[in-house]
UniProtKB/TrEMBL annotation:
Keyword annotations: Cell membrane, Hydrolase, Membrane, Protease, Transmembrane, Transmembrane helix
Gene3D superfamilies (UniProt xref): Spore Coat Polysaccharide Biosynthesis Protein SpsA, Chain A (3.90.550.10)
Coarse class of the protein's main subcellular location: membrane
Membrane topology: Multi-pass membrane protein
Underlying gene: xrtY
Sequence intervals crossing the membrane: 258-276, 297-320, 373-399, 405-430, 442-460
Family statement drawn from the similarity comment of this UniProt entry: Belongs to the glycosyltransferase 2 family. WaaE/KdtX subfamily.
Protein name as catalogued: Exosortase Y
Length: 473
């Protein structure tokens, strides 16, 4: 019985990885096609000695390279499996492919493989990296490379797809054990990604797939990308890194894994945002009209009024929702946003501590950790003063309403995420003896005010640029 699928592999100087991949394909008796980008090592010889058909094509980007491969190899099988040279099949996936019965997949046009990604020898299990599904196998002639992407290549197939959850491909680029290689590689990728996003801003690119949070893995990625494009630059890397570390448990990854999440989730995304601004500045080479600014007196007045209102309203509301002279039972029971915020912070802290292996509970006011003691979340712990300052500045500053609302919401979320991180660290490491010497509230406020000041500076500079461009146009 003939094997119903062929393998296509992209290579460039892959003499380190290609033998490993070809060994994992041995015994499947499937045709192998290798598209090389001009390797200067023994990659082509290794491929030819293994019986693979080899073509050469200059590299522009991954989507176009895959497009060339699918259109120029003489594939005879009904299915094709597209792999990168630094990937290998696990024994379980190889067995699944060995027993692949095409008759059982009538009506299915594509199959997602589950990928395990390794960095410096460590499997990246958290931060949204596992499970991670890639469309790798599809009917030849039906699937195609998405050319609307410039860096993140993906294949698209019409119709029904299926996910193989229990069988994996392993991806480990051994060259990335040298961090200089990783940085140089992602510096090149950041050029492609920045260019792509600038073109999307000019409506020169669009997403091929219909974004859907509850669709296929790639449709969900398209939905998340659409959300990403709407977030303010420089703020979104902070949000994304916080999301990966806290909500997707990247904090559990260990030293190597946390380094990976920082580099890939924050550093790389920040470099892209910087390059986007550089490209926009280069495109906008006409003399700029002066940016329109509000009067400093007007801004100061509104900032002061907003801050006084937010700060003292929170204090007033805290007073009337706690037993005392002006206590309001109705507001305390039904509209107590301060108690709701405290409970949300406690719930998140308890959840993370349990993920870390600690026995933790709360009583709506205190965080209790077995063997560690009790941490009380008093009013000053909730970050409302910081949020009042941040909100007053954003609302008082002259900028488009949409930009204000996005930045305001993002900033408040980041403040409270950092607050949760503080509670978790205090619950594990802080001692009553240390609290007599160092006031952790003061330390936290100093750190947060520095972060807020930097964020506001970047946001103001960005809005000034956009305002100036709009005046010119």
């Amino acid at each position: 019985m003939e094997t119903p699928y062929s393998f296509i592999i992209l290579t460039y100087n892959e003499s380190l990885h290609l033998p490993r991949l070809l060994d994992s394909l041995a015994g499947l008796n499937a045709p192998v096609f290798v598209l090389d980008s001009g390797s200067e090592d023994d990659t082509v010889i290794i491929a030819q000695n293994a019986g693979a058909e080899v073509l050469q094509h200059p590299f522009e980007n991954h989507p176009r390279q895959w497009d060339f491969a699918l259109k120029n190899f003489d594939v005879k099988t009904p299915w094709v499996i597209c792999l990168d040279a630094d990937q290998v099949l696990t024994a379980a996936l190889k067995e699944k492919l060995r027993n692949f019965d095409e008759q059982q997949y009538k009506g299915v046009n594509g199959i997602y493989f589950n990928r395990k990604n390794y960095f410096k020898g460590r499997w990246i299990r958290y931060g949204g990296y596992a499970p991670f599904y890639l469309l790798k196998m599809f009917r030849y002639g039906s699937g195609y490379s998405d050319l609307n992407e410039n860096m993140d290549h993906r294949f698209i197939v019409p119709g029904k797809t299926q996910i193989w959850k229990d069988e994996h491909i392993l991806e480990e680029n051994l060259k990335e054990n040298n961090i200089s290689f990783w940085i140089a590689k992602h510096n090149r990728y950041s050029d492609l990604l920045a260019q792509e996003e600038v073109e999307r801003m000019s409506r020169l690119r669009r997403q091929t797939l219909k974004p859907s949070l509850f669709g296929s893995p790639d449709e969900r990625t398209a939905w998340l990308k659409r959300l990403w494009y709407g977030l303010p630059r420089y703020t979104r890397p902070i949000l994304y890194f916080s999301y990966r570390m806290i909500f997707r448990l990247g904090i559990l990854e260990g030293r190597t894994g946390i380094i990976f999440h920082f580099l890939q989730g924050f550093w790389f995304r920040l470099i892209v945002d910087i390059k986007i601004d550089e490209m926009i500045k280069m495109q906008n080479n006409k003399p700029k009209a002066p940016a329109v600014h509000t009067s400093p007196v007007r801004f100061t007045l509104f900032f002061f009024l907003f801050f006084i209102f937010f700060y003292y309203f929170n204090s007033f509301y805290f007073g009337i929702t706690n037993p005392g002279g002006n206590y309001s039972p109705f507001l305390a029971q039904h509209l107590n946003y301060i108690a709701a915020l405290r409970q949300a912070l406690l719930d998140c802290s308890v959840m993370i501590l349990k993920w870390l292996g600690y026995a933790a509970i709360d009583n709506n006011y205190e965080l209790l950790v077995a063997g560690k003691g009790t941490l009380a979340l008093v009013y000053s712990c909730l970050g409302l003063g910081l949020i009042s300052f941040f909100s007053a500045f954003v609302l008082a500053y002259p900028s488009p309403l949409r930009s204000k609302l996005i930045f305001l919401f993002s900033g408040i979320v980041v403040i409270e995420l950092l607050n949760v991180a503080r509670f978790v660290l205090l619950a594990i490491f802080w001692s009553k003896k240390a609290s007599r010497i160092i006031d952790h509230h003061t330390i936290f406020n100093i750190i947060l005010y520095i972060i807020i000041a930097l964020s506001l500076y970047i946001w103001v500079k960005r809005n000034d640029k956009l305002t100036g461009a709009n005046v010119q146009n």
